[in-house]
Amino acid sequence: MSQRGVPGHRGLGCPQTVECPSGPARDIGFAVAASAVLAAYNNVTGLDSGQERWYVRLNAGATGAALAAATLSGLTLADLGLGRGRWLPSRLGCGLAAGAGACWLLIAAMPATRPLLGDQRAAGLSGRDVAYQALIRIPVGTALWEETAFRGVLQAALRRVLPGTAAIVVTSGVFGAWHIRPTLQALRANGLAGDRRRAIAGTFAGCAATAAGGALLSWLRARSGRLADTVLLHAAVNSGGLLAAHAVAALGEQVKPPAD
User: Fold this and answer.
1) Which of 149, 145, 169 minimizes the C-alpha distance to 159?
2) Cα gap 230→165, rounded to integer Å
3) E-strand spans in the chain?
4) Dmax of the chain from CA atoms?
5) Taking the model in full, what pTM does it have?
6) Which long-range contacts (CB under 8 A, 24 or more apart) does 97-103 make?
7) Per residue in 213-249, pLDDT tens?
8) Main-chain phi, psi angles of 80, to 5 degrees
9) 202: three-class secondary structure by DSSP
10) What are the residue boundaries of the structural domains of the chain, listed by start?
11) What's the pLDDT tens digit per position in 80-133?
Protein backbone atom coordinates (compact mmCIF):
# COMPACT_ATOMS: atom_id res chain seq x y z
CA MET A 1 0.00 0.00 0.00
CA SER A 2 1.44 3.35 -1.00
CA GLN A 3 2.11 5.79 1.80
CA ARG A 4 0.20 8.39 -0.23
CA GLY A 5 -3.01 6.64 0.75
CA VAL A 6 -2.37 7.04 4.50
CA PRO A 7 -2.77 10.72 5.42
CA GLY A 8 -0.58 11.82 8.30
CA HIS A 9 1.44 8.58 8.36
CA ARG A 10 4.16 9.22 5.80
CA GLY A 11 7.43 8.32 7.47
CA LEU A 12 10.37 10.68 7.77
CA GLY A 13 12.50 10.58 4.67
CA CYS A 14 10.06 8.42 2.66
CA PRO A 15 9.64 9.88 -0.83
CA GLN A 16 6.16 9.75 -2.32
CA THR A 17 7.39 7.39 -5.03
CA VAL A 18 8.73 4.81 -2.54
CA GLU A 19 6.60 2.12 -0.91
CA CYS A 20 6.71 2.68 2.87
CA PRO A 21 5.13 0.66 5.69
CA SER A 22 1.48 1.53 6.22
CA GLY A 23 0.41 3.49 9.29
CA PRO A 24 -1.30 0.61 11.16
CA ALA A 25 1.57 -1.78 10.45
CA ARG A 26 4.09 0.75 11.71
CA ASP A 27 2.03 1.41 14.84
CA ILE A 28 1.80 -2.32 15.62
CA GLY A 29 5.52 -2.78 15.00
CA PHE A 30 6.42 0.08 17.33
CA ALA A 31 4.10 -1.19 20.07
CA VAL A 32 5.52 -4.72 19.84
CA ALA A 33 9.12 -3.46 19.78
CA ALA A 34 8.52 -1.15 22.76
CA SER A 35 6.95 -4.01 24.76
CA ALA A 36 9.83 -6.38 23.99
CA VAL A 37 12.56 -3.85 24.73
CA LEU A 38 11.04 -2.79 28.05
CA ALA A 39 10.35 -6.37 29.13
CA ALA A 40 14.03 -7.23 28.63
CA TYR A 41 15.86 -3.96 29.30
CA ASN A 42 15.89 -3.81 33.08
CA ASN A 43 16.60 -7.54 33.42
CA VAL A 44 19.49 -7.60 30.95
CA THR A 45 21.15 -4.22 31.45
CA GLY A 46 20.56 -3.65 35.18
CA LEU A 47 23.29 -1.46 36.64
CA ASP A 48 25.89 -3.06 38.89
CA SER A 49 27.46 -1.30 41.85
CA GLY A 50 30.21 0.18 39.70
CA GLN A 51 27.68 1.93 37.49
CA GLU A 52 25.40 3.18 40.27
CA ARG A 53 26.84 6.70 40.18
CA TRP A 54 25.64 6.99 36.58
CA TYR A 55 22.12 5.80 37.38
CA VAL A 56 20.32 9.15 37.27
CA ARG A 57 22.20 10.48 34.24
CA LEU A 58 21.78 7.29 32.23
CA ASN A 59 18.08 7.04 32.98
CA ALA A 60 17.54 10.72 32.24
CA GLY A 61 19.16 10.11 28.87
CA ALA A 62 16.98 7.03 28.36
CA THR A 63 13.93 9.19 29.10
CA GLY A 64 14.92 11.60 26.35
CA ALA A 65 15.60 8.74 23.93
CA ALA A 66 12.19 7.18 24.65
CA LEU A 67 10.43 10.48 23.99
CA ALA A 68 12.37 10.96 20.75
CA ALA A 69 11.49 7.45 19.55
CA ALA A 70 7.83 8.02 20.40
CA THR A 71 7.78 11.30 18.48
CA LEU A 72 9.35 9.67 15.44
CA SER A 73 6.70 6.94 15.62
CA GLY A 74 3.97 9.56 15.27
CA LEU A 75 2.90 9.96 18.90
CA THR A 76 2.16 13.54 19.96
CA LEU A 77 2.83 15.26 23.26
CA ALA A 78 -0.88 14.99 24.02
CA ASP A 79 -0.73 11.22 23.39
CA LEU A 80 2.12 10.99 25.90
CA GLY A 81 0.29 12.95 28.60
CA LEU A 82 2.47 16.00 28.06
CA GLY A 83 0.06 18.18 26.14
CA ARG A 84 -0.46 21.86 26.71
CA GLY A 85 -1.77 22.60 30.18
CA ARG A 86 -0.98 19.10 31.44
CA TRP A 87 2.54 19.53 32.76
CA LEU A 88 1.48 19.80 36.41
CA PRO A 89 -0.26 17.10 38.48
CA SER A 90 -4.02 17.22 38.88
CA ARG A 91 -5.91 17.25 42.18
CA LEU A 92 -6.49 13.52 41.78
CA GLY A 93 -2.78 12.82 41.36
CA CYS A 94 -1.84 15.03 44.31
CA GLY A 95 -4.50 13.39 46.47
CA LEU A 96 -3.31 9.88 45.66
CA ALA A 97 0.31 10.85 46.32
CA ALA A 98 -0.64 12.35 49.68
CA GLY A 99 -2.60 9.19 50.47
CA ALA A 100 0.45 7.05 49.68
CA GLY A 101 2.55 9.12 52.09
CA ALA A 102 -0.09 8.78 54.79
CA CYS A 103 -0.16 5.01 54.33
CA TRP A 104 3.60 4.77 54.82
CA LEU A 105 3.33 6.84 58.01
CA LEU A 106 0.58 4.58 59.30
CA ILE A 107 2.54 1.41 58.55
CA ALA A 108 5.62 2.80 60.28
CA ALA A 109 3.64 3.99 63.30
CA MET A 110 1.85 0.71 64.04
CA PRO A 111 3.96 -2.01 65.74
CA ALA A 112 1.93 -4.74 64.02
CA THR A 113 2.79 -3.51 60.52
CA ARG A 114 6.24 -2.06 61.19
CA PRO A 115 8.07 -5.33 60.36
CA LEU A 116 6.80 -5.00 56.77
CA LEU A 117 9.28 -2.14 56.36
CA GLY A 118 12.32 -4.23 57.23
CA ASP A 119 14.85 -3.73 54.42
CA GLN A 120 18.58 -4.17 54.88
CA ARG A 121 19.29 -1.86 51.93
CA ALA A 122 17.60 1.07 53.70
CA ALA A 123 19.18 0.23 57.04
CA GLY A 124 22.67 0.58 55.59
CA LEU A 125 22.17 4.10 54.22
CA SER A 126 23.36 7.30 55.86
CA GLY A 127 21.06 10.28 56.24
CA ARG A 128 22.74 11.96 53.28
CA ASP A 129 22.29 8.87 51.14
CA VAL A 130 18.61 8.67 52.05
CA ALA A 131 18.08 12.32 51.13
CA TYR A 132 19.77 11.80 47.75
CA GLN A 133 17.74 8.66 47.07
CA ALA A 134 14.40 10.16 48.09
CA LEU A 135 14.82 13.56 46.43
CA ILE A 136 16.88 12.87 43.30
CA ARG A 137 17.57 9.25 42.46
CA ILE A 138 14.02 7.95 42.85
CA PRO A 139 12.06 10.92 41.41
CA VAL A 140 14.37 11.47 38.42
CA GLY A 141 16.21 8.21 37.88
CA THR A 142 13.29 5.89 38.60
CA ALA A 143 9.85 7.54 38.60
CA LEU A 144 10.38 9.95 35.69
CA TRP A 145 12.13 7.35 33.55
CA GLU A 146 9.75 4.46 34.21
CA GLU A 147 6.60 6.55 33.92
CA THR A 148 7.77 8.08 30.64
CA ALA A 149 8.63 4.64 29.28
CA PHE A 150 5.50 2.82 30.47
CA ARG A 151 2.58 5.17 31.12
CA GLY A 152 3.85 7.66 28.55
CA VAL A 153 5.31 5.86 25.54
CA LEU A 154 4.22 2.24 25.87
CA GLN A 155 0.65 2.86 26.97
CA ALA A 156 0.15 5.45 24.22
CA ALA A 157 1.69 3.15 21.61
CA LEU A 158 -0.55 0.26 22.68
CA ARG A 159 -3.58 2.52 22.78
CA ARG A 160 -3.19 3.10 19.03
CA VAL A 161 -3.65 -0.61 18.30
CA LEU A 162 -5.64 -1.95 21.29
CA PRO A 163 -8.75 -0.98 23.28
CA GLY A 164 -8.06 1.05 26.41
CA THR A 165 -8.46 -1.81 28.89
CA ALA A 166 -6.26 -4.14 26.86
CA ALA A 167 -3.59 -1.46 26.59
CA ILE A 168 -3.59 -1.09 30.38
CA VAL A 169 -3.36 -4.88 30.89
CA VAL A 170 -0.39 -5.25 28.53
CA THR A 171 1.39 -2.18 29.92
CA SER A 172 0.98 -3.49 33.46
CA GLY A 173 2.20 -6.97 32.51
CA VAL A 174 5.33 -5.58 30.89
CA PHE A 175 5.86 -3.35 33.95
CA GLY A 176 5.73 -6.45 36.14
CA ALA A 177 8.24 -8.25 33.90
CA TRP A 178 10.53 -5.18 34.09
CA HIS A 179 10.88 -5.82 37.84
CA ILE A 180 12.00 -9.47 37.74
CA ARG A 181 15.67 -8.74 38.36
CA PRO A 182 15.14 -5.95 40.95
CA THR A 183 12.69 -8.13 42.89
CA LEU A 184 15.12 -11.04 43.00
CA GLN A 185 17.92 -8.70 44.10
CA ALA A 186 15.73 -7.34 46.90
CA LEU A 187 14.90 -10.86 48.09
CA ARG A 188 18.57 -11.83 48.16
CA ALA A 189 19.57 -8.63 49.98
CA ASN A 190 17.08 -9.43 52.74
CA GLY A 191 17.85 -13.15 52.96
CA LEU A 192 14.49 -14.19 51.53
CA ALA A 193 15.73 -16.23 48.57
CA GLY A 194 17.23 -19.18 50.41
CA ASP A 195 16.48 -21.76 47.72
CA ARG A 196 15.30 -21.78 44.11
CA ARG A 197 11.65 -22.46 44.97
CA ARG A 198 11.44 -19.59 47.44
CA ALA A 199 13.25 -17.30 45.06
CA ILE A 200 10.88 -18.08 42.19
CA ALA A 201 7.76 -17.79 44.36
CA GLY A 202 8.92 -14.54 45.93
CA THR A 203 9.88 -13.04 42.59
CA PHE A 204 6.55 -14.01 41.03
CA ALA A 205 4.62 -12.52 43.96
CA GLY A 206 6.66 -9.32 43.89
CA CYS A 207 6.26 -8.86 40.14
CA ALA A 208 2.53 -9.60 40.35
CA ALA A 209 2.18 -6.91 43.02
CA THR A 210 4.19 -4.51 40.88
CA ALA A 211 1.97 -5.25 37.88
CA ALA A 212 -1.08 -4.47 40.02
CA GLY A 213 0.49 -1.17 41.05
CA GLY A 214 1.25 -0.52 37.40
CA ALA A 215 -2.43 -1.05 36.57
CA LEU A 216 -3.34 1.67 39.08
CA LEU A 217 -0.80 4.02 37.50
CA SER A 218 -2.09 3.22 34.02
CA TRP A 219 -5.66 3.87 35.16
CA LEU A 220 -4.58 7.21 36.61
CA ARG A 221 -2.81 8.11 33.38
CA ALA A 222 -5.92 7.30 31.35
CA ARG A 223 -8.25 9.05 33.79
CA SER A 224 -6.35 12.34 34.13
CA GLY A 225 -4.50 12.43 30.82
CA ARG A 226 -1.42 13.69 32.68
CA LEU A 227 1.91 11.87 32.90
CA ALA A 228 2.80 14.21 35.80
CA ASP A 229 0.20 12.45 37.95
CA THR A 230 1.80 9.04 37.60
CA VAL A 231 5.33 10.42 38.07
CA LEU A 232 4.25 12.10 41.32
CA LEU A 233 2.44 9.02 42.65
CA HIS A 234 5.30 6.67 41.68
CA ALA A 235 7.85 8.94 43.40
CA ALA A 236 5.65 9.25 46.49
CA VAL A 237 5.29 5.48 46.83
CA ASN A 238 8.98 4.69 46.31
CA SER A 239 10.49 7.61 48.22
CA GLY A 240 7.92 7.30 51.00
CA GLY A 241 8.69 3.61 51.38
CA LEU A 242 12.42 4.31 51.58
CA LEU A 243 11.97 7.05 54.19
CA ALA A 244 9.67 4.89 56.27
CA ALA A 245 12.00 1.88 56.12
CA HIS A 246 15.00 4.00 57.07
CA ALA A 247 13.11 5.58 59.97
CA VAL A 248 12.06 2.16 61.29
CA ALA A 249 15.63 0.86 60.96
CA ALA A 250 16.99 3.89 62.80
CA LEU A 251 14.39 3.46 65.54
CA GLY A 252 15.33 -0.19 65.89
CA GLU A 253 18.96 0.76 66.41
CA GLN A 254 18.03 3.25 69.12
CA VAL A 255 15.94 0.81 71.15
CA LYS A 256 18.26 -2.17 70.64
CA PRO A 257 19.64 -3.36 74.00
CA PRO A 258 23.40 -3.00 74.46
CA ALA A 259 25.52 -6.06 73.79
CA ASP A 260 26.92 -7.91 76.78
Assistant:
1) 169
2) 17
3) none
4) 85
5) 0.84
6) 97/232, 97/233, 97/235, 97/236, 98/236, 100/233, 100/236, 100/237, 100/240, 101/236, 101/240, 103/240
7) 999 999 999 999 999 999 999 999 999 999 999 988 8
8) -85, 0
9) helix
10) 25-250
11) 999 999 999 999 999 999 999 999 999 999 999 998 888 777 777 888 999 999
